[in-house]
Amino acid sequence: MYSIDDIIKTYTGHKPEPIGKHRFFSVLVPFVENDRGDVCLMYEVRAHDMVSQPGEICFPGGHMEKGETPLQCALRETEEETGIPAGRIRVISQGDILYGYANYTLYTNIGIVDYDDFWNTRVQEEEVDEVFLVPLRDLAAATPQRFEENVTTEIDRDFPYEKVGIGEDYAWRVGRWVIPIYDVDGRVIWGLTARITEKVLETLAAGDGLARPVERC
Fold this sequence. Notes:
Layout: H1 4-11, E1 23-33, E2 39-46, E3 57-58, E4 61-63, H2 70-82, E5 90-100, E6 104-112, H3 115-119, E7 128-135, H4 136-141, E8 145-151, H5 161-164, E9 175-184, E10 187-190, H6 191-206
Parallel strand pairs: 1-6
Antiparallel strand pairs: 1-2, 1-4, 2-3, 2-7, 5-6, 8-9, 9-10
């Protein structure tokens, strides 16, 4: 059917892709130094009339288009949603990656936005109600509530247990999903955005980043 040469030809230079349905998202984690010298994180409030996650707080970003890198996606979405030109964002590095249990991967990208650019945002009203800043010191001082979601397995009723040689008591893989909730100055930050925020704070604290001044843009 296939020769070894066919295998070599097919897989030499092969670009890996997900097996099965999988979605990729990417966000920018924007740091802004305000006019008081406070280093802040910039968040968005999703439009309240959106079908998906209306009114929730998030970082700018979205679904990766075919052929895009995570950084290209994050910068494109940030410009579309906030009007901040991609070329004005000082990119530091790729941040950590969040692997979701619901067939998706969320990339983060660390960047610095100038305070003037923050004030001159022109939000895409169909998707964004507002952008706002939260000082890192306030986030670091807040103790998030933490809840856990048990991720269970539900198998089709007609699954052929006997055919594959297992019983109905088979130990399918399950998981546990942590849901942090920050409440800072009346802003409730939860879910994926809170998990990213928590990880950013952990990373900064591990490197003593909270104790060092951030270089001005």
